[in-house]
Amino acid sequence: APGGLVNLLVKRPEGRVHSAFFSVNDAGEARAAVDVGGRFGPERSLGLRVNAAVARLNTQIDNTEGHSRLLSVATDWRLSRDTLIELELEDSWQSQPSVAGLSLLGDRLPSSRTFSRKLNLNNQPWSQPVQFEGRTGTLRWTQNLQAGWRSAVTYGEQHLRSNDRAAFPFGCYEGATETYYYSACPNGDYDLYDYRSDNERRITRSLLAQLEGRFDLAGIENNVRFGL
After folding, report:
1. What DSSP character marks residue 185?
2. Structural contact between residues 75 and 48, judged by C-beta atoms closer than 8 angstroms
3. Most exposed residue of 35, 88, 164, 187, measured as fewest CB within 10 angstroms of its CB?
4. Do residues 204 and 157 touch, judged by C-beta distance below 8 A?
5. CB-based contact 32:71 (threshold 8 Å)
């Protein structure tokens, strides 16, 4: 795509993995994660991969501290040479205040010399953080058929919930002249709203059945895939 492409890959149980990660930065943000996996059972037919992460979130702006956590599990079961069952589960949560309203300063970007990290209009006694919560699961059955053909059936389900909140600055309306300002009023006043949209939910379910294989036609090898 013109804007670029992101390819997200599930960490699968491909072998023994034991790793840990920890980082901190100058904004006071700290992250820790572990990645553990291996194969077990007769002929190593059962695989398991677990990732867990926690973070104390922060930015270069004061009063933007937040937290996040994530747990994901990927497992597979090789029932035979031709049959594979795969399961992936993920649970994630994040909570952090947002930063808004710098456009109220005028029609120019703030200078790095005059900008203050204390400038955060969302830092009000009644402000609440933005929260995201997600649970995702995928189950896949892959079966090798005869003559190089293979079928796969995948079912996925995702439950997302968010609480969108902010001390929302909205410029200024001067009633005497019935004039709207995209930034603060000439005297420095501006409108500030307690915006809250709690318990926004989105549920997605998907079922995909595929059949793929190859055949020769007039001396030419053809690869085909059918999906529904």
Report:
1. -
2. yes
3. 187
4. yes
5. no
Closest by CA position to 71, among listed 140, 145, 137: 137
Backbone phi and psi for residue 148, each to the nearest 5 degrees, phi listed first: 80, 15
Helix (H) or strand (E) holding 18: strand 17-24
- Mean pLDDT for the chain overall: 90
Q: Report yes or no: 164 and 196 within 8 Å, Cβ to Cβ.
A: yes
Distance CA 39, CA 16 (A): 7
Backbone φ and ψ of 182, nearest 5°: -75, -15
Give the pTM: 0.80
Q: Indicate if the pLDDT at residue 226 is higher than 80.
A: yes
**Ordered DSSP codes for 113-180:** TT--TT--TT--TT---EEEEEEEEEEEEEEE-GGG-EEEEEEEEEEEEEEEEEEEE--EEETTTTEE
Q: Cα dihedral sign for 45, 209, 73, 6?
A: positive
Say what the alpha-carbon torsion angle 214, 216, 217, 219 is, to the nearest 10 degrees: 140
Residues near 106 by beta carbon (within 8 Å), at least 6 away in sequence = 183
